[in-house]
Every structure is written in structure tokens, then in C-alpha cells.
User: Which sequence fits this backbone?
């Protein structure tokens, strides 16, 4: 959009973070090479620049890490809760201290805008550790009976969309309850987890309590299948989640899965349009739409469809796509070439199936992985773009006439992670919310997260909850 | 020569002052009283607070209540944790004061000061959890959303324990402010110095002025106007003997203050429960219609 005012570049300095040319696996308190010596490169998705070379964990390394975690479990779980709490408080404080460094690192490795890593990811990461630190010595009050016990070694596999935040969601409750962990970050975003290893060192965390294994799906599969793992926690795709559920079948491993979604954002005719537009935008374009709870289906009441779409298009035209380190950037890079290809394929299918595609005028950088914010109108429930999780900045717009129709359409998905409701009428919010088969329902807001608030899905969006008092259960033998 | 003169250096005494509204005033009465250690050796002159000092403290506590109770629980937790951080750095000062005040060895006093620091950490963790433990949704038999949440009762007068000058003191202050109340604390009459020094820690811990106000002097003299004060919402009688406790409870009944009677405490080091928090919480229940659903007569 031709703009009256041009923004001058306002890049955040890269100098706050010092990325080493290579990193090892973090096992038993030490950085170490992979047993088979394998490594992989991690690149910056916005420039394709190689950031570092990282050791790639294999089956043997998984075994070594699980043994280290098992060895550390005895002492860690026997510590008074108040002492475990103080370790976690230390970690929370060090994350706060180093949050600018970690935000820049995360933006470099993931491609998301610095505005998001600085204002959302990092504050939530620190808060998550702070919150669960406080539970470590209060488990008797958590509603699971007196003196609930930890499970043992937790094998945790996390995705690339919120690398450090997903790490926090996994590690903080696990340690608070007295478990030890082996965590595998995603292959495209290993760096913040390795920096976290250094934070554990600064905090004086006993060796082996946290082990970090950068690697690919094979390492994740080996970790999940390892016979000496007592607890498996996975965040990622529904397809992989189902594989994991099959792997742990017949064992005593406790399993929690936080998987895909196809969230409906329902806008009623009495909704404040400007507010709703902001919510729709944050719902689907936050983190380039690479969010499991994204509001990727807009359900708008027919009577306000045109008005809302006009406003929405106008707003999309003002979004700024580009250098993720620029503080003015709204839309950063797609995390990988692979993800970009997946988004592209699904969007092409949407067009082929007859949905109407629209994007604002938007110049894409020449290097890196980019996708312009995209809207589909004339979408029916049968269209692929209304059914499949795209995991990109792509919004499908559908309409409804009655609240019952809105509920029926919102629930017409195998997923059930999130939903949004926009209306000025409180009773309608509550009535609709009670009928939605989704684990998180935002009303007149979207994509809100807090360590005190449980998060997780219905149906094929997974099971178990992370966050809040409820999040403790996944790591306790109850 | 220089070594010798250093050894003979005359130390600088600290003027102990009250801590009210984030400032360190002397008693408006200009009075002080002698504080001595367990062997009767003079330690300092502490302010002998008056009724007017007490009333000023109520004004300060009331003024601070809005912002403190309105702060996020997370923010309050961070600040309470900050108190622990500050205290850790001034540990030796408190070991010294507690040893003098309670006639303890350095190692015993050290143990108590460590437990006191950890007590702040314990309550720092409670700020954003107490609502999840004592609040919750209620499944009423009707189309209503119904949620009960704890809220702080307001301005709380705390009579600090007379014997445990520091661990006991913090064990009664922290639960009051963790949930968003503001406090007027009457320090141990015989051993007020750790409490007055605590004010210096609180003042440098991001705790807004007026959230905790510390008065020293004659417990009965200060407590009486506070127990009958119409702008005080609750009173913790931990530091009152039976006779004083009854007297204050009667005075407190005039505006139905929440009263926490003195509890026998064998060992302040024991892990606290949640009773000292719930004693100063109100429960607020909010109803909202959910509208009715279904194919017929949909009204939402």
C-alpha cells in the first residue's frame, strides 16, 4: 500500500548474542559430540545464513542422555521441594536477565519478528519458570493428595514455532515436580535450547537433571521409544502424535500430546469490528500463522461479512513483512523451506478447488523463506483450506447465519484446540463457549497465554494440559 | 601505627526509624525507648510510636491498597522474591541483629535468617496460586456461569510475634501482603530492631511504599487505636497475650474486622499452611447468565 509515511529501518542489534560456530549435545552437564560424530547446520530462515553447526543426536546419544537423567533423578527427586523451587527461581531470573539476548537469538534461528520474541516469547518463558518454581514446594496443595510423587525421566520433544517457550512449558513443570528430563528441540531451531543449557549451568543445576539433544525425528522417535523413559510429552503435528501414541501403547509411560488445530474465530454481528479485526489478525498472523492454536478459520456472521472483510483487508495492507530483527516488522520469515513448500502446496490447492485468494500488495525479500499474508473467501467446509492445518499466514473465511450454525461449523473438524468468539453479549459468549469442543476459548481476544492458565486440546488436538495447576498432573504419578 | 588506629575506630551507630508510607520517619511524638539485648546490654533507642503514628500508618496503608491489590499476582510474586534476593545480600546484618535480639549463637541466628529468606520465597510462589487453590467455578443448577475468587480484605494490622523477632515477623507479614493486602506491623516490643531494619530491605525491593508499614513501641499502646480504627479491615493478634488479645478482639468487633487469634507456634521454621493467607481473604462470587441453547428457542 502506498504509504504517506515510510518507516526507517529500526533493527535490533545482533551484537547482544554471541553464537558459537558449533554446539554439542548437552548430556550430564557437559557439551559433547554425537557418538557417531554427525552434525547438522541451522540456518536463519530470513536470510538462509548458516548460524551454527550442531551435533546431531542418534540412538546411542539418546541412551546416554536417558541414563544421565536416570542417575540424576534419585537425588533431584529427593531434594526438598523448597530447594528445587530455588533452582527454578534462579533459572527464571537468569532468563529475565538474558532475555534480550535470547530474543535476538530466537528471532535469528526461527525467523519470527523481534517484536514477538521480545514482547511475547521471552516474558512468557521467564514467567513459566517463575510460576512452576512456586509449585515445587506446594504440591501438597495442588489437589493430587498428599506428597504426590514424580514419574522419573521425562522424554520431551518440542516444535520449532516457539522453541524456547515450548521448552519452558515442558521443562518447568517437569523439574518442579521432581522429574529429570531429556529434551529434543526441533532440527530447525536448536539454538535457544542450547543456550538454555548454559543457563542451567549458570543456575548451578545438578548435572543430568536437564539434557538437551538437538536432532531430527529419528532422535525423537528413539527417545519416545526408550524403555527407561517414564513420561513422554510431545508438541507437534497430529500425524507424529498418533505415531507416538502407538509407540507408547502397552507401556506404563504417561503421555501428553499437544498437536495441531484448525481454530474457528467466530464473529457475531454485534461485535466491535475494529477490535475483532485486530483479534483476527493476531489470531492468524501472529508468528506467521505457525501456531497450533491459530484462528485459521474465520466464521463471520453473514450480515457483517462485507464490512468486516473491507476492514480486514485494509488492516492487512498495513502489515509490515520483512527483516525479523526490525522492530517495526509484523510478519517475519517462514521457519523453513520445507514449511514454505507445504504452505504453498495447500494454498495452491485452495485456489484449484475454487476458493478466492487475496493478499495485500507485499514485496517479499529475495533470500529466505517468505509467504505473504493470505485470505481465502468463498470457502466452503469441504475445501482443503478449511479442513487441513496449513500452519502458515493463511486465513479461510466462511460465513454463518445463526449461532447454532456457527457452533456446528466451528466443531466440524477433527481438531479441538482453540476458538474465538466476538460479540458484545456476555450470555452469548458463555453459551457458545459451552458448546465448542475446544480446549481454549478466547472471547473478544485471541492468542492469550499465561503460565497460570491450562492449555491443550480436545479430540485430535491431543490430550493433557500444559500450564496452571492442571499442568502438574502430567508429571506426577497420580 | 595506622593498623592500631583502625582497630580503635569508633563505629557509627544507626538511628533506627519507623517505616511508614515508604519513608523513614521518627515517631511524631519524639519519643524513643531503650532496646537492649538478652543480657541487658543497650543496643539502640527505638522510636516509641504514638496513636498518631498508628493513624498515619493506616492512611499510608489505605493509600497503597488500590495499586497493590490491583497489581497482577505475578508482579506481586516477583516483588516478594526480590525481597528474598535483597535479604540474602544483607544476611550478615540480620544474623547479627537476630543473635543480639534473641540471645542466640551466630550459627543458630544464621539458621533462622536463612529460614526467613526462604519464607519470602515460599510466599512469592503463592501469589499466583492461592486463587487456583481456594477459588474456582461452581456448577450451579441453572444456565449460569458462576465463579468464586479470593480477594484481599484490605488494610491489615499485624501484631508481630514477641519472641521470634525476624522469622516470626516475616511469617506473619508475607502471607498478608502476598494476596494483595497492605499491612501495619507492630514490631516485637522487646526486640524491634530486625523489624525496623527489614523496612530498609523492603524499601529497596520494588515494594511500593505503604504496602508494609513498621511501627515500634509499646504493643498495647499502638494496637488499641488500630483495633478500633474504622479504616482497618483485619487484625492479626499473633503478638498479643491472652488479655490484650481479648481486649483487641472486642474493639475489632466494632467494624467487624477479620480477626486472627494468637495461635500457639512451637517452631516458626515449620512449613506454613495457607491459613495465614485465607484469614485475610474475602471470597467474591460472580454470576453471569449463559443463555440457553438448543434447536428450539435458541436465545443466545
Assistant:
Amino acid at each position: 500500500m502506498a504509504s504517506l509515511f515510510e518507516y526507517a529501518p529500526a533493527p535490533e542489534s545482533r551484537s547482544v548474542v554471541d553464537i558459537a560456530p558449533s554446539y554439542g549435545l548437552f548430556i550430564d552437564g557437559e557439551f559433547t559430540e554425537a557418538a557417531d560424530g554427525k552434525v547438522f547446520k541451522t540456518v536463519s530462515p530470513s536470510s538462509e545464513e548458516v548460524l551454527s553447526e550442531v551435533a546431531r543426536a542418534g540412538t546411542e546419544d539418546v541412551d546416554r542422555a536417558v541414563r544421565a537423567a536416570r542417575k540424576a533423578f534419585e537425588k533431584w527427586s529427593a531434594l526438598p521441594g523448597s530447594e528445587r523451587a530455588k533452582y527454578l527461581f534462579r533459572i527464571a531470573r537468569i532468563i529475565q536477565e538474558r532475555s534480550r539476548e535470547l530474543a535476538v537469538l530466537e528471532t535469528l534461528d526461527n525467523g519470527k519478528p523481534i517484536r514477538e520474541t521480545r514482547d511475547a516469547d521471552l516474558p512468557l518463558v521467564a514467567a513459566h519458570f517463575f510460576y512452576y518454581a512456586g509449585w515445587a514446594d506446594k504440591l501438597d496443595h495442588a489437589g493430587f493428595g498428599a506428597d504426590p510423587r514424580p514419574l522419573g525421566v521425562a522424554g520431551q520433544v518440542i516444535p520449532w514455532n516457539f522453541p524456547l517457550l515450548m521448552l519452558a512449558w515442558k521443562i518447568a513443570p517437569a523439574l518442579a515436580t521432581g522429574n529429570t528430563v531429556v529434551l529434543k528441540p526441533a532440527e530447525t531451531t536448536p539454538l535457544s535450547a542450547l543456550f538454555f543449557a548454559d543457563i542451567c549451568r549458570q543456575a548451578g543445576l545438578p548435572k543430568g537433571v536437564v539434557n538437551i539433544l538437538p536432532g531430527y525425528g529419528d532422535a525423537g522417535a528413539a527417545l519416545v521409544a526408550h524403555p527407561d523413559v517414564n513420561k513422554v510429552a510431545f508438541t507437534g503435528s497430529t500425524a507424529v502424535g498418533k505415531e507416538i501414541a502407538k509407540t507408547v501403547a502397552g507401556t506404563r509411560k504417561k503421555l501428553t500430546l499437544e498437536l495441531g488445530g484448525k481454530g474457528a474465530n467466530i464473529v457475531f454481528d454485534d461485535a466491535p469490528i475494529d477490535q475483532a479485526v485486530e483479534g483476527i489478525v493476531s489470531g492468524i498472523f501472529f508468528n506467521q500463522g505457525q501456531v497450533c492454536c491459530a484462528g485459521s478459520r474465520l466464521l463471520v456472521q453473514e450480515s457483517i461479512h462485507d464490512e468486516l472483510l473491507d476492514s480486514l483487508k485494509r488492516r492487512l495492507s498495513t502489515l509490515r513483512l520483512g527483516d525479523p530483527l526490525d522492530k517495526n516488522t509484523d510478519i517475519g520469515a517462514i521457519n523453513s523451506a520445507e514449511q514454505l513448500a507445504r504452505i504453498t502446496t495447500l494454498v495452491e490447492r485452495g485456489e484449484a478447488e475454487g476458493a478466492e485468494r487475496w493478499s495485500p500488495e507485499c514485496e517479499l525479500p529475495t533470500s529466505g523463506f517468505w509467504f505473504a499474508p493470505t485470505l481465502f473467501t468463498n470457502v466452503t467446509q469441504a475445501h482443503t483450506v478449511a479442513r487441513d492445518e496449513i500452519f502458515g499466514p493463511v486465513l479461510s473465511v466462511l460465513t454463518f447465519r445463526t449461532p447454532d450454525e456457527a457452533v456446528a461449523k466451528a466443531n466440524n473438524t477433527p481438531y479441538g484446540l482453540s476458538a474465538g468468539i466476538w460479540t458484545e453479549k456476555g450470555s452469548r459468549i458463555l453459551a457458545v463457549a459451552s458448546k465448542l469442543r475446544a480446549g481454549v476459548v478466547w472471547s473478544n481476544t485471541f492468542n492469550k497465554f499465561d503460565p497460570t492458565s491450562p492449555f491443550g486440546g480436545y479430540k485430535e488436538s491431543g490430550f493433557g494440559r500444559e500450564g496452571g495447576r492442571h499442568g502438574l498432573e502430567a508429571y506426577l504419578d497420580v | 601505627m595506622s593498623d592500631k588506629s583502625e582497630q580503635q575506630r569508633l563505629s557509627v551507630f544507626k538511628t533506627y526509624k519507623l517505616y511508614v508510607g515508604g519513608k523513614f520517619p521518627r515517631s511524631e511524638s519524639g519519643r524513643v525507648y531503650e532496646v537492649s539485648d538478652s543480657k541487658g546490654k543497650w543496643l539502640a533507642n527505638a522510636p516509641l510510636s504514638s496513636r498518631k503514628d498508628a493513624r498515619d500508618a493506616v492512611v499510608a496503608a489505605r493509600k497503597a491498597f488500590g495499586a497493590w491489590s490491583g497489581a497482577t499476582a505475578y508482579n506481586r510474586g516477583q516483588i516478594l522474591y526480590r525481597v528474598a534476593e535483597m535479604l540474602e545480600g544483607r544476611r550478615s546484618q540480620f544474623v547479627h541483629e537476630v543473635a543480639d535480639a534473641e540471645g542466640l549463637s551466630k550459627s543458630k541466628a544464621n539458621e533462622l535468617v536463612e529460614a526467613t529468606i526462604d519464607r519470602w520465597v515460599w510466599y512469592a510462589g503463592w501469589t499466583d496460586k492461592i486463587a487456583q487453590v481456594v477459588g474456582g467455578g461452581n456448577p450451579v443448577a441453572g444456565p449460569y456461569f458462576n465463579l468464586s475468587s479470593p480477594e484481599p480484605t484490605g488494610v491489615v494490622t499485624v501484631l508481630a510475634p514477641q519472641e521470634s523477632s525476624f522469622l516470626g515477623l516475616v511469617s506473619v507479614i508475607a502471607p498478608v501482603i502476598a494476596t494483595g493486602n497492605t499491612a501495619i506491623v507492630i514490631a516485637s516490643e522487646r526486640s524491634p530492631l530486625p523489624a525496623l531494619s527489614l523496612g530498609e530491605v523492603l524499601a529497596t525491593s520494588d515494594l511500593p511504599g505503604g504496602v508494609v508499614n513498621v511501627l515500634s513501641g509499646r504493643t498495647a499502646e499502638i494496637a488499641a487505636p488500630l483495633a478500633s480504627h474504622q479504616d482497618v479491615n483485619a487484625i492479626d493478634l499473633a503478638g498479643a497475650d491472652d488479655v490484650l488479645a481479648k481486649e483487641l478482639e472486642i474493639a475489632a468487633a466494632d467494624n467487624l474486622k477479620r480477626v486472627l487469634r494468637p495461635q500457639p507456634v512451637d517452631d516458626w521454621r515449620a512449613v506454613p499452611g495457607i491459613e495465614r493467607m485465607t484469614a485475610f481473604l474475602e471470597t467474591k462470587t460472580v454470576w453471569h447468565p449463559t443463555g440457553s441453547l438448543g434447536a428450539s428457542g435458541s436465545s443466545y
